[in-house]
Amino acid sequence: MKRIVVISTGGTIASRWQGSGFAADAHGQEVMATAAVPEGVAIEVVDLFSVNSPRLTTAHQLTLVRTVHEVLGDPGVDGVVVTHGTDTLEESAFLVDLYHDDPRPVVFTGAQLPLDAEDGDGPRNLHDALLTASRTRDLGVLVAFDGKVHAARGTVKTHTVGADAFADPSHARVGDIGFGKVSVRRHPSRPAALPLPGVPESRPRVDMVMHHADGDPLLLNAAVEAGAQGVVLVATGAGNATPEVVSAVAAATARGVLVALTTRVPSGPVSQIYTHGGGVDLVAAGAVPTGLLRAGQARVAVLAAVLATTDTDERVRVLRHVLGQPVPVPAEPART
């Protein structure tokens, strides 16, 4: 028997009608009771919390990271499934992946329809996640949804309400689920896992600011003045803004704020192509381009760097490591 631990965190898969809308209130055992358990799998349930995922905080997510590590501290556990709300699933899954250094799988899943829906997708998704957790290894953290398996890194929610809700716009999915099998198509590339972070006394502020026509530095400057230790600039195109935003980025990085550069375009890399406020200038001002990571996961990468150290230069190095980019080696002092 494969021993799989299900960590329940809430979301639509655990939601019931509350009189004016749906909200998470079911315990993990209730969620688990809706799904068929694959043959040869034994289940244990951990009720971590039950909230709608837009309400998750860094404290919730770090609790989840530590709980996954505690569960996998038992060598008798073969895998972990996390039931999670779809709104921020891509963020939590990526955060867990950054600290996951174990061949055993951690598989996130959820639902687009609530717990009691007659045609709900939760039971199938949960069954598929259990199957994936019991059949795969050495793939990092995964997302099992609508018969597909995705790598945590790069996967985002691509449809607000449709059953086929997740994809990596820039990569093929990891595998497919069907007929009692998990067919693996590719092995995702992942940087070495980070050490588990300490528990911060207060939640570090990491903000996102989107550029648009008529966009100015107001919101970016406001984030810095509010105490943001990191800011994700969600730029246009391949990673472009204006000269005024470039000046604001330079001022922010001079104050020790970690600035990451992503794009509001669904797929393709952030690239240094344009000047006059474009990616060339933003990177020269100190922004770190996030490659294929989009806004939510770019923020998670910045958060991980902020949690790792208080040193400004080291935060940049950690962020580049998380992004899979070459990390410059500090020059040795000249000998006299």
Automatic annotation (TrEMBL):
One biological process GO term for this chain?
Answer: asparagine metabolic process
Q: Which GO terms describe its molecular function?
A: asparaginase activity
Q: Which residues form the L-asparaginase N-terminal domain?
A: 3-188
Query: Domain Asparaginase/glutaminase C-terminal spans what residues?
Result: 205-317
Q: State the Gene3D superfamilies in the record.
A: 3.40.50.40, L-asparaginase, N-terminal domain
Top enzyme class, one word, equals: hydrolase
| Reactions performed catalytically | L-asparagine + H2O = L-aspartate + NH4(+)
Instruction: Tell me its EC number(s), please.
Output: 3.5.1.1
Q: Which UniProt keywords apply?
A: Hydrolase
Q: Where is the active site?
A: T12, T86
Q: Which SUPFAM superfamilies match?
A: Glutaminase/Asparaginase
CDD domains hit by this protein = L-asparaginase_II
Record has Hydrolase as a keyword: yes
| InterPro entries, A to Z | AsnASE_II, Asp/glu_Ase-like_sf, Asparaginase/glutaminase-like, Asparaginase/glutaminase_AS1, Asparaginase/glutaminase_AS2, Asparaginase_C, L-asparaginase_C, L-asparaginase_N
Q: Where does substrate bind?
A: S53, T86, D87
What family is reported?
A: Belongs to the asparaginase 1 family.
Recorded protein name is: asparaginase
The protein's organism comes out as Streptomyces lavendofoliae
